[in-house]
Design goal:
mainly alpha; FAD/NAD(P)-binding domain; two-stranded antiparallel sheet; 5 helices
Length: 218
């Protein structure tokens, strides 16, 4: 069989590429070695419950293209508030400290945005005497996978810009309500207790991933 384009691999990138190519009018074949599409995204049903064996949510769901794809395929989307920013029963991290930590993080982010620093190093925007510096280091390390000393201000702001107004409003609300953005971290950056991750970090598809790819253009 002849085709304009052959896409190798039916994970998220492969399915996305095949969809775009098919919509462009090019004849496209998607080849997947396994018995299912989806790659690392694999929702398995056990006793009537959906269990995510791979990725569990849509990252940055407010702009993730897969949300629209899932909706078009009739797959329900969980839009309940994310639980990753809630400290379980406030254990080891009282609400007042959570609010202080949230404000310290917001202040650090504002320092980045208005930065006139001679360097592009995110660590240079920390308050030299800030009591929540280790907290900020830990949270940003989870987000970026790098220490602040290795993090570019320009790169981090590009990511923060993609978070958008909704993400900033959520951070402000957490500060106002003294719930914080703890993720189970105290001021020293140590994990004190486990938060609830039952619903993941963003709205997620509630059905089998391969159900997203059905027929021409679906």
């Amino acid at each position: 069989m002849n085709s304009d384009v052959v896409v190798i691999g039916g994970g998220a990138a492969g399915v996305g590429a095949a969809r775009r190519l098919a919509q462009s009018g090019l004849s496209t074949i998607l080849l997947e070695a396994s018995s299912r599409l989806g790659g690392r995204a694999w929702t398995h049903e056990v006793a009537g419950l959906n269990i995510d064996l791979g990725c569990g949510w849509f990252h940055s769901a407010d702009r993730n293209a897969w949300v629209g794809i899932a909706q078009a395929a009739g797959i329900p989307i969980d839009r309940s508030p994310a639980q990753w920013g809630v400290q379980y029963r406030d254990l080891g991290f009282p609400p007042g400290e959570q609010a202080d930590a949230g404000r310290a993080f917001a202040t650090w982010l504002q320092q980045l945005e208005g930065s006139r620093l001679p360097s592009d190093c995110a660590a240079d925007a920390l308050d030299p005497n800030g009591e929540w510096n280790d907290y900020i280091r830990t949270i940003v390390g989870f987000i970026s996978g790098a220490a602040l000393e290795q993090l570019s201000i320009a790169d981090y702001l590009a990511h923060a810009g993609r978070i958008g107004v909704a993400g900033r409003a959520q951070l402000a609300d957490k500060c106002d309500s003294a719930s914080g953005d703890s993720g189970g971290i105290d001021r020293s950056g140590r994990r004190r207790s486990h938060g609830s991750y039952a619903r993941g970090g963003s709205p997620r598809a509630g059905g089998d991933t391969h159900g997203i790819h059905r027929g021409p253009g679906r």
